[in-house]
UniProtKB/TrEMBL annotation:
Residues 34-97 form the DUF302 domain. It holds the Pfam family DUF302. Gene3D superfamilies: TT1751-like domain. This is Uncharacterized protein (DUF302 family). Coiled coil: none annotated. SUPFAM superfamilies: TT1751-like. It comes from the Bacteria.
Length: 129
């Protein structure tokens, strides 16, 4: 499995705000925000449900990872998806950093990935409906 998720109450924009704040409490900032709905409309003229990909990064932990393996940047940042489902419920999904970073065979990366995952799981648990 490469991710984990939860349902959140409230509207889409509120969920984006809620997850951004919860990430901040765990030391993550959002480096990128991709509005997939807007991109699909602009590029393909397709109407989609709201869907955003947030590129979350904890600078301290990212620095540790980059110090251990310079190409690990290919696996960063940790993506968090906020999406509206067909029934209009809101799902927040998190990339499992352990599943991804375990591809890197460097000392300490497995433990570091576990720390990142634990923080993201705390974010998930804090926003769950």
């Amino acid at each position: 499995m490469y991710g984990f998720n939860t349902k959140v109450s409230g509207g889409f924009d509120e969920a984006v705000e809620k997850v951004t704040e919860a990430l901040k409490e765990e030391g993550f900032g959002v480096l990128t925000e991709i509005d997939v709905k807007a991109v699909m409309k602009k590029k393909l003229d397709i109407d989609k449900k709201p869907y955003k990909i947030l590129g979350a990064c904890n600078p301290e932990l990212a620095n540790q990872a980059l110090t251990a393996e310079s190409d690990i940047g290919l696996l960063l940042p940790c993506n968090v998806v906020v999406r509206e489902e067909e029934d209009e419920s809101i799902t927040v999904a998190f990339m499992d950093p352990q599943a991804v970073l375990d591809l890197v065979q460097q000392p300490g990366i497995h433990e570091l990935a576990g720390e990142v995952k634990a923080r993201l799981e705390r974010v998930r648990d804090s926003i769950a409906s």
